[in-house]
């Protein structure tokens, strides 16, 4: 591994620069969208080296792809449009369905606690109706009294971890003494964290009731969380994400109500005659595919070629045909296309397409595309697509080996890779009965033709007189071992095989050690050389960017550690 030579730039800005690649400056907030602050802080120098190297590589490839003009490629532009639309759909449901469910009180509580982490331990005292897999046989009242008793023991001087090992019904307490480690807001149950984050250090709580029983909570230490320095829109995004879990059980019903309202407002009405024609198209196509051993129907091609289907549905007071739905399906991978077997399936699948179209239009109307969260998600998606496309482009530019290179590789490696060992050719009479094997051996010894006996009795290739393919030493267990002790023309005694069959063999020929013919291994060598060429093209293309682009790393962020090229 050789060092990537970089210039070092010291930054004094509030948002710390991580790295500058050419004219592009990437801040710590950009970097931490890929790698969490906790992950970064826990990592050693080599791990940080790999993370930052990977980040630079991905961003550099995306920058280079843009400079080459990949964004002008129609196929990439279509992918970006389709994926951006899916980000818009998700953003609309997040803004209009999920967010209204989160109360102002929950957001305020999260905002007040999100910048702190606590090192917390607990003792769980469960009861017979709690949600443990094997709850103890005690009542809820008995559990409360026991929890109070344990609290008294701690306050009398008993160690918390010893009490946890002795009394806690949390199965992990025997190993960790009740420690949950460092916990941020939103990582535990609501009532548990409400109490835990208000506790003073080394002060035990009163019993806290959750679905799992009563908890005694102890906070051993507090520190700033990874969100401690966030402000404004970034802070509010983190606050919302940490609060969202409190309404997760409400989301399905809320989304269903939202969908019903939007479809009703759009006055969606389906034409059952057209839907029946679509069902028949799909059934006929499946039957045709089955004849050729295929089972997956290409809905896009089928819908594109469909004629005389008519108006499929009325949507926002206009008729929509099958080719409109085909166009919408085109942006979805075929592996995710719905299984349309009847009219109800088709309506359900087409409703999803209509709702996505409604969401995109609604998102544009409400300017969701101008929000920081949407912009960051689209940017991340775009960079990921450009990175993948750039690597594929590098691979496709790799030169293919000609016949001379294949021949040279063969000559260079034939001793090690393409030399066939000594092989032996035998005829085998294989039967399932020992008495029959003994009888056949006796008759062969008295003149019965071996090949004729194999044709009549052998389970191994009887049509060719029991002739086997040449094999090397070490194959076929006992039969193979015996074969290599015989000379040409020798006939063995009866051999008992591992599968409880019985064999008699005759050695036909011993083939000397020889080289595989080039024509037999040509395709294999060509494939190997293509893979090597593609790997080199990809590595050189990416590493070349490290040399080509001016990369400046901030030592205040990375502590001056060297960056190594993988």
Structural class call reads alpha+beta
What do we call the CATH topology of the domain at 116-224? Chitinase A, domain 3
- The largest sheet has its strands arranged as 1-17-2-3
Give the number of DSSP strands: 17
Query: Cα-atom Rg, whole angstroms?
Result: 36 Å
Distance between the termini: 7 Å
CATH architecture of the domain at 116-224: Roll
Mass-distribution shape: extended
- Total number of helical segments? 22
The low-pLDDT segments are: 1-14, 560-566
Largest sheet features:
4 strands, mixed
CATH class of the domain at 116-224: Alpha Beta
Describe this structure in words.
With 566 residues, the protein is α+β, with helices and mostly antiparallel strands. Among the domains are: 1-68 and 550-566, no CATH class; 116-224, Chitinase A, domain 3, CATH 3.10.50; 266-365, no CATH class; 422-512, Chitinase A, domain 3. Helix content is 51%, strand content 14%. The chain is built from 22 helices and 17 strands. The protein has helices spanning 28-31, 37-42, 45-68, 74-98, 104-113, 140-155, 160-167, 173-176, 190-196, 232-243, 251-265, 272-291, 299-305, 322-329, 343-365, 372-396, 403-417, 434-445, 450-457, 477-483, 518-548, 555-558; strands at 7-8, 17-21, 24-27, 116-125, 179-184, 208-210, 213-224, 269-270, 313-315, 318-320, 419-420, 423-431, 471-472, 495-496, 502-511, 514-515, 551-553. It has a four-stranded mixed β-sheet. The chain has a four-stranded antiparallel β-sheet with strand order 5-4-7-6. Strands 13-12-15-14 form a four-stranded antiparallel β-sheet, sandwiched between helices. A hairpin with a 5-residue loop joins strand 14 and strand 15. The longest helix is centred in the last third of the chain and has 31 residues, at 518-548. Residues 1-14 and 560-566 have low confidence and may be disordered.
